[in-house]
Amino acid sequence: MILRSWGVLCLCAGLGLGTWVWQRGQAPPQASGYVVVDGLAYPAPVEDTKAYNRQMEVMGGKGLVAVEAFSRWLGGLSRSRVFAGLLAAGGLGLGLAFLRAAARPAVRDDEDSGQSP
Hints:
- With 117 residues, this protein is mainly alpha-helical.
- The chain has 4 helices and 2 strands.
């Protein structure tokens, strides 16, 4: 009963989170600045500029720059369709594994049951 509940929970959570991330994957990242190349302006996040990185390094050192880059990477995963597919596949696989384990009959040894042959 517990394994079946865990299986259903994993299936629902994995497929639900995968769907949610897939829907968010359509939204383009928000640009907070522009970079001009050959007279054309391209939207770019301010976090990618040298001035921003220099200011972060002055405020908190190289560690702050590394932590902020890692934080942006984790935030970018929530807009990735590949990550959405991995979430859905992982939830599906784990849920099916729990459901298959719940369907197997319990193996009992004669020694465990207290009966002698």
